[in-house]
Amino acid sequence: MNVSLEVIWYSGALAWSxxxxxxxxxxxxxxxxxxxCVLSITLAACLAASSATAESSAGREILEANCVKCHGPxxxxxxxxxxxxxxxxxxxxxxxxxxxxxxxDSPLVRAVKYEDDVLRMPPSRKLSDxxxxxxxxxxxxxxxxxxxxxxxxRAEADLLLEKRIASDEKLWALRPxxxxxxxxxxxxxxANATDAFVLAKLAAKGLASSLPADRRTLIxxxxxxxxxLSAYEKLVDGVLASPHYGERWARHWxxxxxxxxxxxxxxxxxxxNAWPYRDYVIQSLNEDKPYTQFIREQLAxxxxxxDAATGFLxxxxxxxxxxxxxxxxxxxxxxxxxxxxxxxxxxxxxxxVGCAKCHNHKFDPIxxxxxxxLRAMVEGVEHGxxxxxxxxxxxxxxxxxxxxxxxxxIERKLAQFLPEAGVDGVTVAVLAVGKDEKxxxxxxxxxxxxxxxAVQAEKNVxxxxxxxxxxxxxxxxxxxxxxxxxxxxxxxxxxxxxxxxALAERGAKASASSEIADNEKHKTVHLNDGNYGNDHSxxxxxxxxxxxxxxxxxxxFIDTIVWGRDREGKFKDRLPLRYALEVAESPAKWQLVATSxxxxxxxxxxxxxxxYTASTLEQKNALEQLLKQRDDAQARIKDxxxxxxxxxxxxxxxxxxxxLYRGDPMQERQAVAPAGPRYVRPAxxxxxxxxxxxxxxSLGDWLASEQNPLTARVLVNRIWQHHFGRGxxxxxxxxxxxxxxxxxxxxxxxxxxEFMANGWHMKPIHRLILLSNTYRQSSAPRAECxxxxxxxxxxxxxxxxxxEAEPIRDSILAVSGVLDPRMGGPGYHVFEPNDNYVRVYxxxxxxxxxxxxxxxxxxxxxxxxxxxxxxxxxxDGGQTAPRRNTSTTxxxxxxxxxxxxxxxxxxxFAHRVKQEAGDDLDTKIQRxxxxxFSRVPDAVELHASNQxxxxxxxxxxxxxxxxxxxxxxxx
Length: 971
What we know:
single chain, 971 residues, alpha+beta, six-stranded antiparallel β-sheet, two-stranded antiparallel sheet, 30 helices, 14 strands, 40% helix
């Protein structure tokens, strides 16, 4: 019993007032009874309060006696202190130890109950049941602590968290971004502040920067670095304005977010509509879209008018082969969500959040609760395609609605050319068991050219004399194969302006014998929802016989029932073949109105013909005109409602997210509300009742906040890595305790602050770096610097590196003169086409102009590589690749020397040289060098090239130039 101090005070004051109101001794019995009553209440309240205080005190004393020794001021195992309520709320590596008022949600309570096989406290012995109950009661009472209110304690815990972040060097990346002062430096050596930070670090290390690179090297470096193509002129502003900038930098972002165009796993089937996300990234980068907007669109583009952007969420692998096994199904779903959470954490925050799925993070302050809080933000995201609607979609759909009304009236008129259903000589009982073989044969022979048309998968019309009804029942006794499927059951009332009165929006209710479990596509509600197609249909849980029923809002005259298996015509299985249609004004009086018995036999794989008939010339003309009107209306509707589809996810309001014991989807524990990692400030917490889309918008806003200490740092570090081959933080997607420490922390923060101050635009940061003297240094080695800093961490020269596969291939095409500059759209294929259930990716051995676009537009299968250039350390799309390895292998040399692609391109290169240089051999050599290296050959090179051409031909020289380190490396 919890009694407030106010109640105790009030009851005591009331008793005192009554006693003072007259002579206490001479008080009459009635008055004395009032006093006794109030005093009893007061005493009971005092005793209850005393009991509650005792319980609370006992729980806290148990905590102090059993826990503070290992979690107190002197020792804090797992970083946890329990000697104050603020420290308990702050928690340790595993997050807060207490949730006041919620013992079931308090790790401390679960630990002392020994509910967890791993976390059992105290480890030496299990507390007695009485001690556990007392501790649980204390938490349920709000974890009262002497001299502390819960509100003030929470504020104190927040301050402790800020102090912990400020004092722990491992948490450097979680501190606020504060723009440091630019170090003093010689102005002659500094093109901008970037150089000042680098020069200060070099001076501290006893090193000096290198001389500037020569003009030819610098121009070539700039073009290959920013555009991925070699060229002669135009500098920084020109290359940043080029549409090729987006193509070059998009490839890096697509690596970061594990983009590929197949599902992966054993079937690895294509995602033919995944490419719009790739085009979205390229366009966004070329527009220099603010990074904050770029983030928000990738998380909630469906609500921001940028549908293709949410391809980010579902860019990872997806196991499409499902099973009735609930364990497999839950593990598949768990893997999908884990991929989304891990990618969000690594791409935007630079944190390995995914490591906290099965246990609290071993090194970073990321708890399991943090992981599942972030997971709750995207719990409603599912893999799959959806429509990409244009800006005029609503206007088009409104026109389509009008056209659909016109079509309904046309089909109503066409129905007059259909024979009415006949039910003479057949009953539901006969249909249920079928006739004997002889009678069936006689009937089928008699119907071979007469009777109504055979059933069709798309649509079947059942006409009968008008009669009053409120109930319609469709019973299915046999199908073409397995359980039946119906996508829509329409009931049309009689009259010239007939309507489908079976629609749910008109008050009709659908019911069925059963429905398939765990499949939202095939539910009873789809029978009359007005949506056609397999994705909006009903399938029973059990085989035939099966039935569906429509109850109309009110009884009325009806004369037509329309049904189909799949009005879109994509599926023809599960087709009802033997059935009965009954109607009733009341549930007890069913009347048979149509059956399958007067239809011609169904023949599989036979194209359905129009079932209409006309006997007179006048009827034939009228029918022909109506059919033309129908076809025109259907074509208009299709044109108005056909939108392109994109693989960018589907969204639904999710159920509660639960923390999973040891990450096992079959072992759900307490529910977890949508939230961000608590050590990443500002705090992010979302009400579990928040609509699904709003959750993702909240997450995007939080990531894009200037107060978030990670977002800007992570992105500018990726830009730095792109230009120098190594980031200021060498682990670009891990800014945690096990990640590399920044080589130039002040420069990183200065760039992050500049990035935010410039409206989160990337191009100004690129420009700042490209115009710096640090970037424009020579790449030539110097012995004394190599001895002190062989990896060039302190940037005493421009670090040379081999180009990635994409700029190598693209430059080969550009030099040979056949590069196709077309941007966007579906990608080209370098594998032979096939439609196997398990896809086989056989490399092409011959290439045509369609395959000569930039490599960013190459169709990207998961776990498969371009046979020529994949060996150059291309990621396979199975997981994120924030930084590519740079290997040197014999296969790389062999592919560049002898592959069909290289032999073909060498011939094309030679052909171009002949066309542009004429017949003179020296002129040909000079032109080839100019195209490949942007320079003329020296005397030794000219002589050797002459000899090579005379011995083996011009194409061999061209192939040698393609294989030269000068062509393959960025210096």
